[in-house]
Recover the amino acids of this structure.
């Protein structure tokens, strides 16, 4: 009898990292990780006695939780719904993770309220919030890596690249221009040069020149000079003024 063995995580990771197929989680997860690291660093270095610094942290954590909650909604509505049609068993564990993340987000919001309120115990509350954030981000890092390996592999087994792209396009069509700009900024901070050029090339294909000009400007604004020059060169655009080489 022929036995089909489940590939190991190493085999799945190797297959996904070296293939030329669409990776629907890659860019957005790199953006989310940057947002998570920025927020965690802000929480780590907070002067809890300073009301202004506390308000800034509360706003930053609130932004992170809002974005994570929205991201869960995007994956549930567009990615998991599609996978459930063709690979229902593969998506079960990821659905469980998402429910756990929603509970964690609720608990973090309660802790955030305590930090926002201040008072004599605020330093302890701020440290408790920081530790809860490290757990939340840790769980998310592992979960996102699983989506970028195991779940991406499942997508490839059951969907063509054209079908995956159509799912992505349906999701992107729900974004306001402000939302698209927000995610593009975090992607600029988190993607490498090749990924950024791929993102920009996709934008150039999919939008009128004036709108693309706006996107490119927005990406460039997030980059240090050397990376701006590399992106310009990758896009076949004139060198960035003031830079001779990259
Ligand atoms: Fe997810």
């Amino acid at each position: 009898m022929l036995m089909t063995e489940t590939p190991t995580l190493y085999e799945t990771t190797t297959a996904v990292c070296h293939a030329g197929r669409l990776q629907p989680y890659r860019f957005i997860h790199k953006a989310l990780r940057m947002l998570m690291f920025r927020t965690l660093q802000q929480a780590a270095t907070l002067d809890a006695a300073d009301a202004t610094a506390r308000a800034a942290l509360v706003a930053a954590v609130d932004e992170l939780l809002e974005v994570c909650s929205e991201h869960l909604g995007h994956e549930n509505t567009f990615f998991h719904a599609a996978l459930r049609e063709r690979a229902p068993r593969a998506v079960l564990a990821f659905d469980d993770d998402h429910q756990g993340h929603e509970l964690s987000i609720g608990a973090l919001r309660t802790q955030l309220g305590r930090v926002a309120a201040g008072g004599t115990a605020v330093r302890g509350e701020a440290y408790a919030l920081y530790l809860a954030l490290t757990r939340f981000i840790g769980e998310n890092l592992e979960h996102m890596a699983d989506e970028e390996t195991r779940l991406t592999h499942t997508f490839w087994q059951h969907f063509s690249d054209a079908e995956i792209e159509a799912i992505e396009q349906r999701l992107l069509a729900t974004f306001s221009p402000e939302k698209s700009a927000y995610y593009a900024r975090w992607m600029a901070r988190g993607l490498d040069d090749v990924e950024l050029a791929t993102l920009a090339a996709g934008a150039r294909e999919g939008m009128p020149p004036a709108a693309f000009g706006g996107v490119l400007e927005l990406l460039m604004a997030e980059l240090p000079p050397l990376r701006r020059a590399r992106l310009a060169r990758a896009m076949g655009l004139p060198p960035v003024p003031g830079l001779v080489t990259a």
